[in-house]
Specification:
With 263 residues, the protein is an alpha/beta fold. The chain contains 9 helices and 8 strands. A 6-stranded parallel beta sheet has the order 2-3-4-5-6-7. It has a two-stranded parallel sheet with strand order 1-8. Helix 3 (73-92) runs parallel beside helix 4 (112-128) and helix 8 (206-215) crosses helix 9. The radius of gyration is 18 Å and the shape is globular. The model has no long low-confidence stretch (mean pLDDT 97).
Length: 263
């Protein structure tokens, strides 16, 4: 299985060129970034392609996402940002856009306004040949609605969110057959503390993660979504050490998944 890691995982000061160098040096073949990032340009995409690194997904903006469920201009503005993400995917030939359905707790109530907006998003994605992968957050109901209501929708399993936002709830037995991509990271299991640690550096059970991925016969990328600055765990580690640590963890998980798939 191939591995991947998000851009700007170490900090925002490392140049794109340096990040690409570190990804290539550590065997990462895939990456992703926010669809509204100022760094999402033809030049950046060209540099990744030249290094044989695939921009596998884009992550749609999620600031103010709750407004999408409410009547009014704020919700329309959020939808516009999601549609822009679809158009960016089409422009740069990125197959998947990862989308949040809500944020924080309590989430907004499911509404006709929200469903209509997400239908517009799905229609736009179908037109452009882009897969929308909805990500697990704190709310099960809106994720279940999206995957039940929209047959073209995929699931983005975020291991860290499951561990700290909804401890005790397992999403893969429910939606693993719709799995389109993953966000793999660890945390200390503290409620709402989204540490985005390198796998195996926290308290999540990655043997179980591997079993879920193998049971779903997942053949996609083991995509890390890690951020050094989200905790003090990596305060005294260099960028080279951080990428090497992340690569070791991603490869360990990928190997375990492949072993389990053969049993």
């Amino acid at each position: 299985m191939e591995t991947g890691i998000n851009l700007f995982c170490y900090d925002d000061e490392i140049s794109i060129d340096r990040q690409i160098e570190l990804m290539k040096q550590n065997g990462f073949k895939n990456t992703f970034m926010l669809s509204d990032s100022v760094w999402l340009t033809g030049e950046t995409v060209g540099k990744l392609k030249a290094a044989d690194i695939t921009l596998a997904t884009l992550h749609a903006p999620f600031r103010g996402i709750n407004a999408i469920w409410k009547e009014g201009e704020a919700g329309d503005k959020v939808l516009k940002s999601l549609v822009d993400g679809v158009e960016k995917c089409a422009r740069y030939k990125v197959p998947v856009l990862v989308v949040h359905l809500s944020s924080k707790y309590p989430p907004p109530m499911i509404s006709d306004a929200g469903v209509c907006r997400f239908k517009e998003l799905m229609d736009k994605a179908k037109k452009y040949g882009v897969k929308i992968a909805y990500e697990n957050q704190r709310c099960l109901s809106n994720l279940a609605l999206a995957l039940e209501h929209f047959e073209d929708a995929g699931f983005c399993w975020d291991t860290g969110h499951e561990g700290c936002f909804t401890p005790g709830r397992e999403y893969m037995p429910l939606f693993g057959d719709r799995l389109a991509t993953v966000h793999i990271h660890d945390n200390l299991g503290v409620r709402d503390s989204d540490d985005h640690l390198v796998p195996y550096d926290g308290r999540l059970n990655f043997d179980k993660v591997a079993k879920h991925l193998a049971a779903a016969n997942y053949n996609g990328c083991i995509m890390l979504e890690v951020f050094r600055s989200n905790s003090q765990h990596y305060d005294n580690i260099t960028d080279e050490e951080y990428y090497a640590r992340a690569a070791s963890a991603a490869n360990r998980l990928a190997d375990e998944v492949e072993i389990l798939k053969k049993r």
